[in-house]
Amino acid sequence: MLAEQFVGQELLVTQNAALYYWARDAKSSTAEIDYLIENNGVAVPIEVKSGRKGGLKSLHLFLEKYQKSKHGIVVSNQKFDILESQKLKFVPLYFASSVSKLT
Asked: Quick check: helix, strand or coil at residue 37?
Protein backbone atom coordinates (compact mmCIF):
# COMPACT_ATOMS: atom_id res chain seq x y z
CA MET A 1 0.00 0.00 0.00
CA LEU A 2 2.84 2.38 0.76
CA ALA A 3 4.32 1.95 -2.72
CA GLU A 4 0.91 2.64 -4.33
CA GLN A 5 0.47 5.74 -2.17
CA PHE A 6 3.95 7.00 -3.08
CA VAL A 7 3.37 6.51 -6.81
CA GLY A 8 -0.08 8.13 -6.57
CA GLN A 9 1.38 11.23 -4.93
CA GLU A 10 4.12 11.46 -7.53
CA LEU A 11 1.55 11.18 -10.33
CA LEU A 12 -0.64 13.86 -8.76
CA VAL A 13 2.26 16.29 -8.66
CA THR A 14 3.64 15.58 -12.12
CA GLN A 15 0.35 15.09 -14.00
CA ASN A 16 -1.44 18.02 -12.37
CA ALA A 17 -4.66 16.07 -12.94
CA ALA A 18 -6.99 13.76 -11.07
CA LEU A 19 -6.00 10.14 -10.53
CA TYR A 20 -7.99 7.39 -12.20
CA TYR A 21 -8.03 3.63 -11.89
CA TRP A 22 -9.69 0.81 -13.80
CA ALA A 23 -11.72 -2.04 -12.36
CA ARG A 24 -13.60 -4.85 -14.03
CA ASP A 25 -16.05 -7.06 -12.23
CA ALA A 26 -16.82 -10.15 -14.22
CA LYS A 27 -18.93 -13.06 -13.06
CA SER A 28 -16.03 -15.17 -11.83
CA SER A 29 -13.05 -12.84 -11.96
CA THR A 30 -12.15 -9.31 -11.06
CA ALA A 31 -9.35 -7.14 -12.39
CA GLU A 32 -8.01 -3.73 -11.46
CA ILE A 33 -5.30 -1.35 -12.57
CA ASP A 34 -3.81 0.93 -9.92
CA TYR A 35 -3.61 4.09 -12.04
CA LEU A 36 -4.43 5.35 -15.52
CA ILE A 37 -2.81 8.38 -17.07
CA GLU A 38 -3.71 9.97 -20.38
CA ASN A 39 -1.33 10.46 -23.28
CA ASN A 40 -2.74 12.07 -26.43
CA GLY A 41 -6.22 10.79 -25.67
CA VAL A 42 -5.10 7.23 -24.94
CA ALA A 43 -5.14 5.61 -21.51
CA VAL A 44 -1.82 4.30 -20.21
CA PRO A 45 -2.21 1.73 -17.40
CA ILE A 46 0.17 1.83 -14.45
CA GLU A 47 0.53 -1.08 -12.06
CA VAL A 48 2.48 -0.69 -8.81
CA LYS A 49 4.26 -3.70 -7.35
CA SER A 50 6.09 -3.42 -4.03
CA GLY A 51 7.72 -6.84 -4.23
CA ARG A 52 8.18 -9.85 -6.43
CA LYS A 53 4.85 -11.44 -5.53
CA GLY A 54 1.79 -11.05 -7.66
CA GLY A 55 1.37 -11.29 -11.38
CA LEU A 56 0.35 -8.80 -14.00
CA LYS A 57 -2.84 -10.54 -15.11
CA SER A 58 -4.98 -7.39 -14.83
CA LEU A 59 -2.46 -5.37 -16.80
CA HIS A 60 -2.34 -7.95 -19.60
CA LEU A 61 -6.15 -8.10 -19.61
CA PHE A 62 -6.39 -4.31 -19.91
CA LEU A 63 -3.88 -4.19 -22.77
CA GLU A 64 -5.73 -6.96 -24.58
CA LYS A 65 -9.12 -5.30 -24.14
CA TYR A 66 -7.99 -1.76 -25.00
CA GLN A 67 -5.81 -2.17 -28.07
CA LYS A 68 -5.22 1.60 -28.42
CA SER A 69 -3.04 1.48 -25.30
CA LYS A 70 0.43 0.94 -26.73
CA HIS A 71 1.96 -0.33 -23.50
CA GLY A 72 1.56 -0.66 -19.77
CA ILE A 73 3.92 0.56 -17.08
CA VAL A 74 4.94 -1.45 -14.02
CA VAL A 75 6.47 0.60 -11.20
CA SER A 76 8.36 -1.58 -8.73
CA ASN A 77 11.66 -2.06 -6.92
CA GLN A 78 13.05 -3.77 -10.02
CA LYS A 79 15.44 -2.21 -12.57
CA PHE A 80 14.44 -0.52 -15.84
CA ASP A 81 13.35 -3.00 -18.46
CA ILE A 82 11.19 -3.09 -21.59
CA LEU A 83 9.40 -6.20 -22.79
CA GLU A 84 8.20 -5.21 -26.25
CA SER A 85 6.56 -8.59 -26.85
CA GLN A 86 4.32 -8.07 -23.80
CA LYS A 87 3.91 -4.29 -24.29
CA LEU A 88 5.37 -3.61 -20.83
CA LYS A 89 7.82 -1.06 -19.44
CA PHE A 90 9.29 -1.67 -15.98
CA VAL A 91 10.28 1.40 -14.00
CA PRO A 92 11.96 1.61 -10.56
CA LEU A 93 10.01 3.28 -7.74
CA TYR A 94 12.53 6.12 -7.54
CA PHE A 95 11.59 7.08 -11.12
CA ALA A 96 7.84 7.36 -10.38
CA SER A 97 7.80 11.13 -10.82
CA SER A 98 8.93 10.72 -14.43
CA VAL A 99 6.56 7.95 -15.52
CA SER A 100 4.60 10.31 -17.73
CA LYS A 101 7.73 10.92 -19.80
CA LEU A 102 7.73 7.23 -20.78
CA THR A 103 4.26 7.28 -22.32
From this structure: strand
The boundaries of the domain holding residue 72 are: 2-102
Q: How far is CA 73 from the centre of its chain?
A: 4
Among 78, 88, 100, which Cα is nearest to 57's? 88
Of 54, 61, 44, 43, which is closest to residue 78 (Cα–Cα)? 54
16-67 pLDDT, tens digit per residue, is 888 899 998 777 778 899 999 988 888 999 999 876 656 799 999 999 999 9
Looking up residue 38, the CATH number of its domain turns out to be 3.40.1350.10
User: In the sheet that 81-83 helps form, which strands lie side by side, from edge to edge?
Assistant: 20-25, 30-39, 42-48, 72-76, 88-92, 81-83
**Whether 58 contacts 51, CB under 8 Å:** no
| Whole-structure pTM value | 0.89
Residue 25: per-residue pLDDT: 77
Q: How many domains does one find in the chain?
A: 1
